[in-house]
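Quick one: co-fold with zinc ion.
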Amino acid sequence: MPLFSANLCLLCRQSTPLIVCAGCAEQLETLLIGQHQCRQCALPLNAEAEYCGECLATPPAFDRVIAPYLYAHPLDYVIGRAKHHHCLRSARALSQLMARNIELYYRALPQRERPTQVVAVPLHWRRQISRGFNQTQILARAGAQAIDLQANTRLLKRVRDTQPQQGLNRQQRLANLHGAFTACELKGQRVALVDDVVTTTSTAREISKVLRRAGASEVHIWALARTPDAHL
Ligand SMILES: [Zn+2]
Ligand SMILES: [Zn+2]
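Sure, here it is.
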């Protein structure tokens, strides 16, 4: 009788008790961006500069982006599997990465620098029903738990369905998102907004404005990955 392995590595299909085998986990670690990131939007920077040109020219309403990985293979594959194929093992692997990074990031910080509320970039309810799940909500739950909070899905809503951001230029992206979100009262709250990937920062910028208007005193963006070019 043939023996079937209980588990295969998500990436290389070798037998492993883990979701991602040790070799592939090592490959993932090579995507860690390290020290040289814009202090505000986490854009990878070549030089020793503290901020990128865009954050200097048009400062965003968020305070910082915590996005440790470069959006590249194999992470882009895992994110795609979770998002478009609803692969639960991929979603679990990403949740573990999110939890670990959030725990590591805030571990050394005092309570007053930690978020008090965690929200996910919401899908429009119609899209959420057709997709069946919202990957950013799963990531938000994992990240929040890592610092003993609970993600709150009721604080932020997408009130208008928008067309996908891909293929739009910067101006069109901002116009596309304008008025798409509303938030409940957040007076004095430090809010973490969770997304899977930060590319142009348009979504993070728009929602941060909404959160600030609702009273948030600070906005942190939690993402897994950052694209190297802000102008994709
Ligand atoms: Zn592997
Ligand atoms: Zn920046």
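If it helps, The longest strand covers residues 190-194.
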